[in-house]
Write a structure and sequence with these properties.
- By secondary structure, the chain is mainly alpha-helical.
- The protein is built from 11 helices and 10 strands.
- Strand 8 (about 360) and strand 9 (about 370) form a beta hairpin.
- Helix 3 packs across helix 11 (about 315-330), helix 4 packs across helix 6 (about 135-155) and helix 6 crosses helix 11 (about 315-330).
- It starts with 5 loop residues before the first helix and ends with a strand.
- This is Tyrosinase copper-binding domain-containing protein.
- It comes from Phialemonium thermophilum.
- It holds the Pfam family Tyrosinase.
Length: about 400
């Protein structure tokens, strides 16, 4: 082919330059997320990924009403000041004193606004676990909690998160559960060994009974458990915990947290490996995986109850950790990770249509209605304006 003009030659050279630049960019992206096993196990890899995701999310601020002045930064529990942790705990206690919004015909046992979070989760669990809505529904659920803490109790902070892997050596001494005034209460009274947990062969933890000390030691769980004849009937009892370092180390270590972020090629696989969804080969041998592992590191009643676990104050820190993983994974490749996958029912039972981004998530009576599309971006402005540190 003969070049007829100088401009033709320049256009061809420009095309070659663009192609080479694109190839180098792909190569750089592939290299950027290669970490040694030591860095993955120590948390250094996760810290690097988290920083990249944070920077990428912050670079999008200002496009949808979420700005550098208004964005809220969600921190890991131990990075909050003592005063911030106490304020968070007091806001939870405040919700426990507010009157329930549910009609007594729907939830006759609900007494408080805190109970209502358990009722809502119980009613929607068949649609929001092992389904397309798992990640975004729980993202919104945590935001609805924060909104109620602010609107009803004057809370000025944010919902925190728990990095489970930092506490796997001794969960009892975690600043989240050490029984201090800046914690969410202690472990439960020890009730003996030889207790299996959740059918996974794990042994019981170091508690099992009513909370020994600290915040929520006198809290009354009013509804549940899910296996009772009438789960939403009034059933007052103490809150129990059974903190379990064995489960923590096996299923929610820093490696467990990092691997799904590095190795999940799409949201379908990402949510499958988080939940150990046995329909997928990649998730078939993961036991409890991160989602179940975090719940059963706390265990107890209601913490170990699949349906009523939001009545455990640690639930929201755990799901903050899940949302943080999703936030990081999304923001490492934002343009390609604004998607959902799956149907509208748990394990597609009963069989249901594939969910779409226009599907509405209804948090009444605690919050409003939002489409899944509106829940995709934590810096989208409405209803979210937050990042994870």
């Amino acid at each position: 082919m003969m070049l007829t003009t100088l401009s033709d030659a320049l256009l061809i050279m420009k095309g070659i330059l663009v192609a080479v630049t694109a190839a180098l960019s792909v190569q750089a992206a592939q290299v950027a997320f290669h970490f040694s096993q030591a860095d993955i196990d120590s948390g250094a890899a996760l810290a690097s990924l988290s920083k990249t995701a944070y920077d990428n999310a912050m670079s999008r601020l200002g496009k949808n009403g979420c700005t550098k002045e208004t964005v809220r930064v969600r921190k890991e529990w131990r990075k909050m000041t003592v005063d911030e942790r106490i304020a968070y705990r007091k806001a939870i206690e405040c919700l426990m004193e507010q009157k329930s919004l549910y009609n007594s015909t729907i939830a006759p046992g609900a007494r408080t606004l805190w109970d209502d979070f358990g009722v809502l989760h119980y009613l929607q669990t068949p649609m929001t676990h092992y389904s397309a809505t798992f990640l975004l529904w729980h993202r919104y659920f945590n935001q609805v909690l924060e909104d109620n803490m602010r609107d009803k109790c004057g809370y000025k902070g944010v919902v925190s998160y728990w990095e489970w892997g930092l506490d796997c050596g001794n969960v009892d001494q975690s600043p989240l559960f050490d029984g201090s005034e800046s914690s969410l209460g202690s472990n439960g009274e020890y009730i003996g060994a030889h207790r299996s947990v959740a059918g996974f062969g794990a042994q019981g933890g170091t508690g099992g009974g009513c909370l020994k000390a600290g915040p929520f030691a006198n809290y009354t769980v009013n509804i549940g458990p899910v296996g009772s004849a009438h789960p939403l009937a009034y059933n007052p009892r103490c809150i129990k915990r059974d903190l379990n370092a064995q489960i923590c180390a096996k299923w929610v270590s820093l490696r467990n947290t990092t691997d799904p972020i590095l190795n999940s090629k799409n949201v379908e696989i990402f949510q499958a490996v988080l939940q150990a969804d046995g329909r997928y080969a990649e998730a078939r041998n993961l036991g409890m995986a991160v989602h179940g592992g975090g719940h059963y590191t706390i265990s107890g009643d209601p913490g170990g109850d699949f349906y009523f676990s939001p009545l455990e104050p640690g639930f929201y820190l755990h799901h903050g950790g899940i949302d943080r993983m999703h936030f990081i994974w999304q923001n490492l490749d934002w343009e390609n990770r604004q998607t959902i996958a799956g149907t509208r029912t748990m394990y597609n039972q009963p069989p249901s249509a594939n969910a779409t981004l226009d599907d509405v998530q209804d948090m009444a009576p605690l919050g409003g209605q939002k489409t899944l599309r509106e829940l995709m971006d934590t810096v989208g402005g409405t209803p979210f304006c937050y990042v994870y540190e």
